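Researcher: Structure prediction, please.
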Amino acid sequence: MIVLPLLVLSGITVFLFCSNQEGFTGSRVKNPDAYLLDIEKMNGTDLHTLELHEGDVLQIQFETEKGFLYMEIKAPDGTTIYRGNGKEITEFTVNIRESGVYTIVVKARHAKGVIHIQ
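Model: Predicted structure follows.
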C-alpha cells in the first residue's frame, strides 16, 4: 500500500520538474539591429544586446498569448527604460536618449507569444 502513493508522488515530481525546465521552441533571431522571438513554448531567460544611438527609435511588437512572458529593456547605465508583460499594449515605440549598449532581458514560464524589436 505504501508503494503506490510513493510512485504517484514520484511521477508528479518528475512531471513538475520536466515541465519547468528551461527551453525554447520557436524562431529566434539576434542581429545587431533586431531581436525577434516567435515563441511556441519558452521557459527560462534570454538576453540580447543592441548598440543604439541617441535619437534611434525602437519599433516593438510584444504580445503574450499564453503563460508568463516578461521583458525589460535596460539603458547603458543599468536603468530600466521599459518593462512589461505583453498583455496590455502590444505595439509601441521606445525613443533612445543615450548612445550605448542596451540590454534586453526576456523571462518566460510556459509562454507562447511574440517579441519583435527593430
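Model: Strands lie at 23-31, 34-52, 57-74, 80-84, 91-95, 100-117.
Researcher: Thanks, that helps.
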